[in-house]
Amino acid sequence: MEEKKGMGGMIREKIDSYVNSMTVWKACAATAVFAVLLWVIDFSPIGVTGLLQVTGGANILDFEAGYTVTYAYGMLEALGEAGRSFHLTKIMPVDIFFPIGLMFFLTSWMSLFLKKLTKDGSVLRLLPLIAVVNMLLDWSENIGITLMLANYPERLETVCRVTSTVSAVKMVCVKTAVVVLLMLFVWFVLWKICGLVKLKK
User: Fold this and answer.
1) Half-sphere exposure of 105 (CA within 13 A, CB side)
2) Which of 23, 25, 99, 20 lies closest to 62 in space, CA to CA?
3) Helix/strand/coil (H/E/C) assignment for every residue in 87-143
4) Each residue of 81-94: pLDDT tens digit?
5) pTM of whole model > 0.85?
6) In terms of C-beta density within 10 A (0-12 exposed, 13-18 middle, 19 or more buried), how is residue 26 classed?
7) Which regions in the chain score pLDDT beneath 70?
8) Handedness of CA 145, 34, 19, 184 (dihedral sign)
9) CA 125 and chain centroid, separation
10) How far apart are CA 28 and CA 108, in angstroms?
């Protein structure tokens, strides 16, 4: 029990250290990096925009969740050989870094607001971990889709079902993280404007 307590204490200390070290400049830098990654993966010639041109409109499986094996492989078939190759060799390498960029964007702004609104050790300072979990889920989803693409036309049904579940949990996770960030922003604005009592008092 003591070891677990000690480990938990170390984790909380590291979270407090990360939150307390956050500055506007760091958050803005994280935002800039995320914006670049978002443009590359969604709007650049090596991203989704480029894929849509290659496939004639067929999109990637990453935007879906809770799908069946039949639906997933129908989407992979619709991509065509060129589309599957494009997804595997161009989009997937970028999608290694995109979850990291999203994680730092979310945790940076959450931490900046929590630094102002909470004290060390507050349970609310664990909220940025939602973004970390989302990053891990995104990577797991990418691994599953990569296996499906690399082994096509063989149907990896178990991989597909697990990936579908991971994708669904990831979508809930990222939406939760965005809602939490917006709520912290509103709280911060109200505190600034109205002088509401913050948890440091």
Assistant:
1) 20
2) 99
3) HHHHHHHHHHHHHHHHHHHHHHHHHHHHHHHCCCCCHHHHCCHHHHHHHHHHHHHHH
4) 999 999 999 999 99
5) yes
6) middle
7) 1-5, 195-201
8) negative
9) 18
10) 9
